[in-house]
Amino acid sequence: MNDLAQEAARLDAADPLAICRSEFLIDDDLAYLDGNSLGALPKAAPARVAQVVQKEWGEQLIASWNDAGWIGLPQKMGSKIAPLIGAQTHEVIATDTTSINLFKLISAALAMRPGRKQVLSEPGNFPSDLYMIEGLEAQGLAERRLAERGDIEAALDENVALLLLTHVHYKTGEMFDMVRLTKAAHDVGALVLWDLSHSAGAVPVDLNGANADFAVGCGYKYLNGGPGAPAFAFVAEGHLANLQQPLSGWMGHNAPFAFEDDYQPAQGVDRLLCSTPSVIAMSALEVGVDLIAMIGMGPLVEKSRALSEFTRAAMARHVPELTCISPADPAQRGSQLSFRHEHSYELCQALIARKVIGDFRAPDVLRVGFAPAYVRYADCARLVSELRDILDSGEWQKPEYAERGAVT
Ligand SMILES: *Cc1c(COP(=O)(O)O)cnc(C)c1O
C-alpha cells in the first residue's frame, strides 16, 4: 500500500492538470470521487452568483435582461457547450432539465417519423429516459420497446422512429459506439437521441462526426454547474427547420415580445426554449463550463483515462473481492468505474466517514467517478487503501452504515 501512495504522489507531481484543482473549492483532505453525480464548486462561482444577485438583479433589476445579457444566456451557454460535444454553436441551447429536454426531443423525433411509434432503448437505461417514453406512451404517442445492448442493432427495424440511448451508462460506465449505432439507426430510417449526461466534459464526443440527430445532457455533473443546473439540448442543423416540440412556451416563440395569440416557433434551436431562463443558475453553470473549456477536452480525457486505469489496476491487486463491472478498455467506458459487492452500500458509507466520497447504485454497485479537473491520483490511492482497511477491520459492519437516506 505504501508503494501505491508513492506511485500516486509521483503521478500527481508529474500531472500537468494538477494545478486545476486549485480552481475548485474542495477540501484538501477530501477524496471526491462523485463528480459524475454532482460536480465540485468552482472557486469563481460564488462571486459570479453574488454579482448576478446583488448587482444585476439587486441594483439594475429588469434592465439586466438587456444590459447584462440575461435574455441571451441559453444561446450563449449553448455555444460554449457545443465545442465540448462536437456540435456547431447554433445547434445547442442550455435550458430546462435533462428530463424535460428528453420529453421535447422524443416528441419532436416522433413528429418527424409519422407512421412509426416505437422508441427503442435498453432496459436499465437511466430512469428518466425510460419514464419519459412511458409518459408519451400513456398519451398514445409512443410505443416503448427495449432491447439488451447487445441486441439493439438486431432490434432496429422500420417500426422504430427513434433510438434513445445514454452514451455512457450511469451505473456501469459502459460507453456505446456512437458512430456505429447512429449509422445502424439511420440505415432503417430511424432517428437517434443521445443522452450525454455522463459524457459531456468527461469523454470525447463528436455529435456531428457521428451524424447524430439529437442529444441532451446534464449541467451539474462533469460541467460543474451546481445542483439542478440547467441542462442542454442539441439538434443537428439539418433538423432545425422542421423541428416541432410540444412545450410551446412563449420563450420559444419567434417574437416573444410581440405577445401574439398564435404560436410561431422561433428560428433554429431557440424553438426548444419554453420559459424564462433561470438566470442565477445559468450564471453558475457558465463558470463551470468556462473552466472545462479552458482546460480543454483533450487533456481532460487523457487524465480521466489515466486515473481510471490507475484505480482499476490497484483495485484488482489490493481489493480483489470487489468485482469491476466497467469495461477493461478505457476507450469503451466513461470517466468512472463501478464495482459490485454484496455490501457496497455499507462500504460506501464507511468510505464517506473517512472522507472518500463515491456513491452507491442499487442493488449492489459502488461507483467512483474521476472528474479529471480536480481528482488526484492520491485520491484514487486512498480509495483503495481505505477500502482494504474497512474490509480487513470489519468496520463496514457498524450498524450506522446500513441506514439509508432519501438520496443514495
Ligand atoms: C443525471 C442524469 C439525468 C438527470 O436528469 P434531470 O432531469 O436533470 O434530473 C438524466 N439522464 C441521465 C443519463 C443522467 O445520468
UniProtKB/TrEMBL annotation:
Modified residues (N6-(pyridoxal phosphate)lysine): 221
Pathway this chain belongs to: Cofactor biosynthesis; NAD(+) biosynthesis; quinolinate from L-kynurenine: step 2/3; Amino-acid degradation; L-kynurenine degradation; L-alanine and anthranilate from L-kynurenine: step 1/1
GO term, biological process aspect, one: anthranilate metabolic process
E.C. numbers: 3.7.1.3
MF (Gene Ontology): kynureninase activity; pyridoxal phosphate binding
A Pfam family reported for this protein in Swiss-Prot or TrEMBL: KYNU_C
Alphabetical list of SUPFAM superfamilies matching this protein: PLP-dependent transferases
The entry's keywords: Hydrolase, Pyridine nucleotide biosynthesis, Pyridoxal phosphate
Keyword flag DNA-binding: no
Sites where the protein binds pyridoxal 5'-phosphate: 98-99, 126-129, 166, 195, 198, 220, 250, 276
Catalytic activity line of the entry: 3-hydroxy-L-kynurenine + H2O = 3-hydroxyanthranilate + L-alanine + H(+); L-kynurenine + H2O = anthranilate + L-alanine + H(+)
Cofactor(s) required, per the database record: pyridoxal 5'-phosphate
InterPro entries the record matches: Kynureninase, PyrdxlP-dep_Trfase, PyrdxlP-dep_Trfase_major, PyrdxlP-dep_Trfase_small
GO cellular component, one term: cytoplasm
UniProt family annotation: Belongs to the kynureninase family.
Family matches, as HAMAP family: Kynureninase (MF_01970)
Role, per record: Catalyzes the cleavage of L-kynurenine (L-Kyn) and L-3-hydroxykynurenine (L-3OHKyn) into anthranilic acid (AA) and 3-hydroxyanthranilic acid (3-OHAA), respectively.
Subunit structure: Homodimer.
Name the record gives this protein: Kynureninase
Classification lineage: Bacteria, Pseudomonadati, Pseudomonadota, Alphaproteobacteria, Sphingomonadales
Gene from which this protein is expressed: kynU
